[in-house]
Write a structure and sequence with these properties.
The protein has about 200 residues and is α/β, with parallel strands linked by helices. It has 9 helices and 6 strands. It is globular. The N and C termini lie far apart (about 30 Å).
Length: about 200
């Protein structure tokens, strides 16, 4: 797809993902939730999997968690149209259960391709599932939230910035405040150069 502008390449990838039959979730989904946002976003937010509202409308983070994330974006000066938001699994697991290991593995090529095409400066992982996939490490979110680090992710050198999932922030005022404090650093981090060596 060389010579095609970033939006065109991303649209082509989305069209391909819409017909994915790589795992069992294809039989229970309403639609693939590919993700949305700026095709050349400096900041990419990656969550776990679509929920009921996302599965019905085909857009990421539009349910209760998404509404909270939008409020926090506004409070922290983050413009949703300037970032790209997606998840590691593109189809809703039944009853909002956790995605299974083989489902995550089956979907990995889509998130890898998105990262390569968008080429973000910062990848913000939302929750444990995205964190562990992107960092390729079992460390949990409570240990590393708000601690940026340089990582090579699917061939791209980026700032990886772990954040609590907004669903956890819905259940805990303390977690909400921690998430907001971490989000307040996102715009600054997006402008920080990635050192040539780490």
């Amino acid at each position: 797809m060389s010579g095609v502008e970033p939006k065109g390449r991303l649209d082509a990838l989305k069209l391909a993902a819409t017909g994915c039959h790589a795992c069992r979730l294809e039989s229970t989904r309403n639609q693939v939730v590919f993700g949305e946002g700026h095709p050349e976003a400096a900041v990419m937010f990656i969550g776990e999997a679509p929920g009921k509202a996302e599965d019905e409308l085909g857009r990421p983070f539009i349910g209760r968690s998404g509404m909270l994330l939008d409020r926090l974006f506004e409070e922290c000066g983050i413009d949703r149209s300037d970032v790209f938001i997606t998840s590691i699994v593109k189809c809703r697991p039944p009853d909002n259960r956790d995605p299974k290991r083989d489902e995550i593995a089956s979907c990995q090529n889509w998130i890898e391709s998105q990262i390569r095409l968008i080429n973000p400066t910062v990848i913000c992982t939302l929750g444990n599932f995205a964190l562990k996939l992107i960092r390729n490490d079992p460390t949990g979110i409570t240990q590393v939230h708000g601690q940026e680090e340089i990582r090579t992710v699917f061939g791209s050198k980026v700032w990886v910035y772990p954040l609590f999932h907004p669903a956890a922030a819905l259940r805990s005022t303390t977690t909400r405040e921690l998430l907001k404090a971490d989000l307040e650093r996102v715009n600054e981090l997006a402008l920080r150069p990635i050192p040539s060596t780490s």
